Recover the amino acids of this structure.
């Protein structure tokens, strides 16, 4: 999947989980901002030719990459595979793919915890390490997609929450460690896109639980990523795009509220 040769001069962004939901919104915004795209998915079946054509209509070359981020070597190899596919290295890495399963402090186990830590923490860290090494002193940027709950955690999705809290802490540490060449920032979404677990009435009631009396749109999260990608004096920051949810302390995960 590729556009015309005129887009070769565009910079390249590698987006994990870039074919669906928030990842797709980020890909679309970056394409409109002048980026070519290496879009990762866990399974090739997720690749969407119609979505690729939509991005190509915005001027982007699109390179589809399949990898299991649960395997460290496969995650790291994405950096080189993206460069080989595009003929140049990525200068923006957006770590968006996440594993999200339900457990709590009483039910979590070693296997589930390890899985979440590998996909949501170790893979982004190892990819960032490889990304920085591949570029040397060239200026580049990393954006970690987090979760507003990193500030006010709930008892649900225990392993997921711990993995995202670790990634949130890593933003500042990586920003300091990789400066001045690589900037590292985070975007922390709140409740944004419904799943089958919600009905329309609950979704509307949940919006009224937010300080801003609304829910964030995927385009707003994508806009924050695009801003950070183009902000040469910003590093070590996390932008919460969550209608103010991080200002509150909720008793449970949103799926259990406003029933």
């Amino acid at each position: 999947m590729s556009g015309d040769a005129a887009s070769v001069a565009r910079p390249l962004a590698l987006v994990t989980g870039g074919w669906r939901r928030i990842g797709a919104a980020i890909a679309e915004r970056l394409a409109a901002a002048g980026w070519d795209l290496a879009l990762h998915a866990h399974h090739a079946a997720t690749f969407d030719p119609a979505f690729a054509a939509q991005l190509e209509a915005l001027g982007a070359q699109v390179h589809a990459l399949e990898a299991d981020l649960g395997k460290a070597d496969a995650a790291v190899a994405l950096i080189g595979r993206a460069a080989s596919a595009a003929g140049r290295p990525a200068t923006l890495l957006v770590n968006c793919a996440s594993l999200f399963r339900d457990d709590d402090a009483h039910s979590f186990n070693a296997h589930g915890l390890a899985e979440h830590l590998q996909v949501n923490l170790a893979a982004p860290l190892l990819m960032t390490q490889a990304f920085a090494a591949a570029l040397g002193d060239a200026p580049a940027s990393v954006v970690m997609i987090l979760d507003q709950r990193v500030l006010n955690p709930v008892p649900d999705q225990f392993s997921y929450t711990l993995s995202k809290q670790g990634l949130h802490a890593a933003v500042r540490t990586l920003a300091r460690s990789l400066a001045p060449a690589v900037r590292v920032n985070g975007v922390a979404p709140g409740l944004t896109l419904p799943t089958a677990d919600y009905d329309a009435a609950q979704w509307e009631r949940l919006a009224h639980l937010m300080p801003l009396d609304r829910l964030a749109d995927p385009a707003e999260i994508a806009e924050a990523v695009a801003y950070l990608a183009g902000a040469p004096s910003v590093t070590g920051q996390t932008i919460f795009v969550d209608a103010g949810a991080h200002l509150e302390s909720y008793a449970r995960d949103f799926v259990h509220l406003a029933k």
